[in-house]
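User: Can you predict the 3D structure for this chain?
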Amino acid sequence: MPRSSPRPAADPADESPRDAQEGCRLYAITPPAFDPARFRDPFAAALDAGDLAAVQLRLKGADDDVWRRAIDVLRPIAQSRNIAFLLNDRADLVAATGCDGVHVGQDDMPAREARRLIGPDRTLGVTCHASRDLAMRAGEDGADYVAFGAFFPSGTKQVTRLADPELLAWWSDLMELPCCAIGGITAENCAPLVQAGADFLAVVGAIWNHKDGAGGGVRALNAAIRAAQGG
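Assistant: Here is the predicted structure, written as structure tokens:
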């Protein structure tokens, strides 16, 4: 399977962010609920604070109007900075709203159906929990990256079983498809995930709830990634 990554859709011929910068990269997920107009400034500040490969808009249970308003505000901010803008679950909105891809869970739309809806050139990510079998199947179904986790207790989802960083090491040693670590990740605990081979760290609270603001959260995580990589 070819190595790929979240990438802007504006010019599919461009190099992906993964090509532009090797090593583990930050992947921001939005808070579960927010006012787009008030969120615009902290969102832009976070994206300007350091390296991010992608942003995922996650609005569980929101209606289409809420999704579209948030997309209209946030998508241009991300894409103007060459940061991929992905939707959680809503593959049906990706093409119509000019987004760069979708991330689907095991209880959401099947990966093959999501791929059909978004087309061949946009990014598809698939949640695989702590399952090697689910990750292999996701690759076969057209995923551009697989997400493992949760690795730590999470403030956004109830976690009944934690994944082991060894899973990331196994995957990165054997597979070309990038892997993303998710679940309770902070600047203080991310080093084992980076060193195990995670291509991306998906983060919510450690960015948006950081004591120094969202920009401070991005800077802290970038610094922790660099330190874990020996940089």
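The radius of gyration is 16 Å. The longest strand covers residues 25-29.
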